[in-house]
Amino acid sequence: MEYITSTLGNLLQQTAFLNLTGGNLIMIGVACVFLYLAIKKGFEPLLLVPIAFGMLLVNIYPDIMEEGGLLHYFFLLDEWSILPSLIFMGVGAMTDFGPLIANPKSFLLGAAAQFGIYTAYFMAIFMGFNDKAAAAISIIGGADGPTSIFLAGKLGQTGLMGPIAVAAYSYMALVPIIQPPIMKLLTTEKERRIKMEQLRPVSKLEKILFPIIVTIVVCMILPTTAPLVGMLMLGNLFKESGVVGQLAETASNALMYIVVILLGTSVGATTSAEAFLNWDTIKIVILGLIAFAVGTAAGVLFGKLMCKLTGGKVNPLIGSAGVSAVPMAARVSQKVGAEADPTNFLLMHAMGPNVAGVIGTAVAAGTFMAIFGVK
After folding, report:
1. Over the stretch 63-86, which tens digit does the pLDDT of each residue have?
2. Quick check: 136 and 167 in contact, CB under 8 A?
3. pLDDT grade, residue 144 (50/70/90)?
4. Does an H or E element contain 6, and which?
5. How many CB atoms lie within 10 A of CB 78?
6. How far apart are CA 226 and CA 70, in angstroms?
């Protein structure tokens, strides 16, 4: 009888029930909310499902992130910047840079939307973060999860990587909710109804030369951007060259989805109650929201300026797509424009600033790395 009692006691001690803290229960609840938003509401399910499940696992079984645990080795690929770079390759293989090539002025809108990053940087320093932590947090303003993870790892801010990544991916998923009120507040009904001229056709040669030229120019100026910009442009070259269809297909499908699984679950697993439930996390979430809102507003305001300078030929709504949530931000520009005029088609025009924003966020990350002397 004593043996049975002892055995049952040992089994009970090994269950998670007796080891769960109040913080663990809160994080399990947050994970379930994320799963609800992903599955029921369709908010970026490819990102939120693995992140939420990683969050669920680590708060039930913390050892899964300790050395020897499965997700610990996944997370090492984040720290080493491997997974974020591979994500960029997949994004490049799926992205058409034609709208940006056809309308190079889109680069300016993409650059304007990065204003939120630099605003958040100075605010983070004001709120007590050191300069490297502030830089890592500020990239959330670009709504670019892989770049946020990449920079946090490069700047040695792995302790903040979980909150930063979760905030960045959450705001990417919530683009359709966060952006429209800002866009409508800063534009008039008349401006939202502006129809833009059809973009010129872009030749195959232009599409092939674009990733090569961008890589040379950007990486010569900021070599630290090579892992992100280089992989983005390599993936795009796979797509546009027309001679490596198998590589383009693999990069944009199988490899991309494998990397999303590894990155999402490992990022979610950094959100243990001990690491996540603190004042720094709350400040990061607030700073990320401010950065994203300021970036959206800056893009729209610069769009209004371009509208004035071109005599009403630019719809300011496309400026909001300058944040690098591809293609969600461009779809939001299309949706808000269509609400004002159902015959208005802004999607392709918004894709120009949208992909420019991807490049702009990578350049911002490379700039911070150069400032701090990190390679």
Report:
1. 899 888 889 999 999 888 899 999
2. no
3. confident
4. helix 2-14
5. 24
6. 29
